Amino acid sequence: MDIKIREYTEKDLLFVKSSFENLHDYVVSIDPIKRIRKMPGYLEVFFGKFVNNIKNNQGKIYISEFEGKPIGFVGGFVADKQSEENLLEVIPSQLGIISDIYTIPEYRGKKIGGRLIKQIEEYLVSKNCDAIWINTNGFNTSALRLYKSIGFSEREIGLMKKIK
């Protein structure tokens, strides 16, 4: 399968926006305690935040495509400078953040997500990042498996119990 990875262009806006929404729909569908939802206005707020982070923090979006058709994306950016408080507990570093990654369902399991992450990782290294942060929901086991398989390790674990 000849998958190409390229930089985002304005013609990709609708694909990335719909993928962003599909990603959230997927997370809603696999939430075992049904706490995640998507209310009216979700896309405008959270996609707007994604775009602003990319635009204002040396960010980049990459598109994976097959036969000229976009099939996935990844977006990442350089985190703000560490605060004095953060430096009290963490070594000085420049952190890159992978904010969102998505591959359309029929192309999952073909190592496309790993290739997208590798591409954004190379970009973040070029911006002098020495570590990368990515997060996912604990119940998104396929994402966890992917991230661990390419070298990420768990750093923080939050737990939730539904009581009503």
Automatic annotation (TrEMBL):
Q: Name the PROSITE patterns on file.
A: GNAT
Q: Does the keyword Cytoplasm apply?
A: no
Pfam families xref list? Acetyltransf_1
Top-level division of the source organism's lineage: Bacteria
* Record InterPro entries: Acyl_CoA_acyltransferase (IPR016181), GNAT_dom (IPR000182), YpeA/RimI_acetyltransf (IPR050680)
**UniProt KW Acyltransferase keyword:** yes
- A single MF term (Gene Ontology): acyltransferase activity, transferring groups other than amino-acyl groups
- Which residue ranges does the record assign to the N-acetyltransferase domain? 3-164
Annotated keywords: Acyltransferase, Transferase
Q: Which CDD domains match?
A: NAT_SF
Q: What is this protein called?
A: N-acetyltransferase domain-containing protein
Q: In which organism is this protein found?
A: Candidatus Roizmanbacteria bacterium RIFOXYD1_FULL_38_12
Higher taxonomy: Bacteria, Candidatus Roizmaniibacteriota
